[in-house]
Amino acid sequence: MSQYKVITKNQLKLVRSLSQKKQRKAHGLFLVQGEKNVLELVQSQLQVKHVFATTEFLAEHAQDLSQYDCAEASLDDLTKVSTLVSNNAAIAVVEIPLTQAPEAQGLMIALDGVSDPGNLGTIIRLADWYGIKHIVASTDCADPYNPKTISATMGSFGRVQVTQLDLPEYLETCNLPVYGAFLNGESVHKTEFSPEGILLMGSESHGVREEAEKFVTNKITIPAFGGAESLNVAMATGIILDNLRRQHQ
Description:
With 249 residues, the protein is of the alpha/beta class. Helix content is 34%, strand content 23%. It is built from 11 helices and 11 strands. The chain has helices at residues 9-17, 21-27, 35-40, 55-60, 62-65, 75-81, 117-129, 147-152, 167-173, 210-213, 233-247, and strands spanning 5-6, 29-33, 48-53, 70-72, 90-95, 107-112, 134-138, 161-165, 178-187, 197-202, 218-221. The strands form 2 sheets. The chain has a 6-stranded parallel sheet. Strands 1-4-3-5-2 form a 5-stranded mixed sheet. Helix 8 links the parallel strand 7 (134-138) and strand 8 (161-165). Helix 1 (9-17) runs parallel beside helix 6 and helix 7 runs parallel beside helix 11. The radius of gyration is 20 Å and the shape is elongated. The N and C termini lie far apart (54 Å).
């Protein structure tokens, strides 16, 4: 007989509800889906409430998951409540951490109106790759705990803190250079970056808005060599970070 309880109807209902922002806010919980992402939780400081997984997954990772409240669920049940098309062998319900505005130091990313959760998740993943611990985001950015955001981070959600706040107000208090990405800035290939600073990225449709632009100390741009009208915001963030890190490894 299995050592684990079986997932209840109420628990399945909870998992399904957490795909909605309103319910995440009401419960103070979010979903981590997929085998790799669930296993990433073991190394993080996040508070895991429940892990729901197949018998095979629980058996294979019994040691890693021993600290959590686990319950068995069929792949069919998990697929029905998951927002993923595949990779549904494990789903965790996790507490949304209480974050405060980080102290402006080191290298940071600021996002102004980046509303696509996939882009936000990719930027979190890039921040993790380039050793950046803090992202500050305007209140109208995508929800950092949207299932699409979490999936797009590919496990980096536990190592990078995203704080949604009044962005212009935050930038006003910062004593760091603010590198804003614009179409008419200085080429990133020629910019002398400071080792500490804030990279400010706007949405693809509006760019950096006027309220945040006031606090930009250096306007930068990625020079184009072909005919494309623009770059995806996550792709642009990666290119700029690479140029910056090349100067300050």
